[in-house]
Amino acid sequence: MHGTSSTITRPVQDEWAECEQELHATAMPDVQRYENDLRALRAEADRLQDLGTFDQLVDAWPSASETGADRRLRLVRGAAFARRARDIQAATDARRIEERIASARAAGETWVVLQETGNQGAKAAAPFSTAAMHLASGLATVSMAQYATMTNTLVYSLTIIRLNTKSGALIDATPGLEDWLETKDRGELDAAIDRWRRRIETGDVEV
Questions:
Q1: CA-CA distance, 166 to 160, in Å (whole number)?
Q2: Ranges of each domain in the chain
Q3: DSSP 145-182
């Protein structure tokens, strides 16, 4: 139970998210309240720094949520738990990406897929997002398919970014390449991905 997809932690995380949303929504019109909430939130978040897993957060929540009639304190604490949960998830994701990079490099691969949602190889048109990094240079292709606003038409896009070759962390979202592509033609996207990968592999890029 160490990921946000856990069916056990999900209801609790939803509760934390609701606390966070209500806290900010009700504080914004009142500057003094906002500043007080922010200080309280930081203090609560600091107290959670030693909790390094979702299990630990979930176990700590019942006692933290027992605030009597103080609704505001419950919102602050829920928001702090939501923030810490995001930090834990980010650290988990970072470790997973580093492991993927290390495994791909050990296997002698040229590219490694760092993040993927949907199925880019599916025959039926459907949304997807794929980030694949060139292990030697850190240049990565980010390809996506998303429905255009208010339509059921997929729009495909491609961009090139630069990542850290060991961690996969973003170095430059716009490394100076004339790379941006947006099209409704899937074949054009696939051709552009192949073209950019060949250029990157041969060093035919200037950044």
A1: 18
A2: 9-95, 110-202
A3: EEEPTTSS-EEEEEEEEEE-TTT--EEES--S-S--EE
